[in-house]
Description:
The chain is mainly α.
Amino acid sequence: MLIAALDLAASEIDHRVLASLARMLGTTQDKRAIPAFLRLADHPDEDVRFSVARWMPACCEAPGDEVLNALVTLSTDADDDVRDWATFALGTSLEVDGPAIRAALWARLDDVFAEAREEAILGLARRRDPRITTHVAELLDQGSVAGHAFSAIACLGDPALVPYLQEYEEEDVSEALRECDPKARAARDDFAAQLIEAVHARLPDLDFGVYGERFEAGLTLTARRNQLHWSVEMLLDRVAGDAVRAAGLIAGDLGGGESGS
């Protein structure tokens, strides 16, 4: 399917067919489709450009400069939906950062299309840019934040956002509150330190570590050369802060002892 679609995209001139082909190429998630997307990125038809902005990121686990430059350009497109999806790609879909990416996101803060503006704000929050806190607070105050937005806000982790988050349902904002509330974050970090000691005491020969992702909130304990993972936050909640018990659960998962709740 990929080769046939690529061959057709190279010669097709009908914009409706090209838009459909771009969608088809995106579903393959194959990096070999990237050159075709790049050729279509400045197509005169907005539906084709939309399909590029929407589907090209699916084929880029590690996007190169050409892809990023194309998305930056599409984030300034005349069409609202093209700008929105290109901004979402730069801000959320792709784990990339740098001056050009941040400049493109900041440029969308004055966008007349609310969705594109919101994606830019969340993209900057996800990159932990402290200058975006006021804009995040405004979004929260409007009462329309949902879904992946709270994960981005958790990455920002600014205490100034706690009062705004407390106006939402607790189950929706628990992660963001834990990262933004200094006391909750300190309790989690203390538990992580105790967990490291407890796991080492229980399993002294285990090769393990605790780390945090750059573009995600929270901490993860990993073992056996990154083959096994445990969310530190989930362990904390499960054992009510008892690091020794959490170490026992990990030992059980590894086949070395306690495995109960």
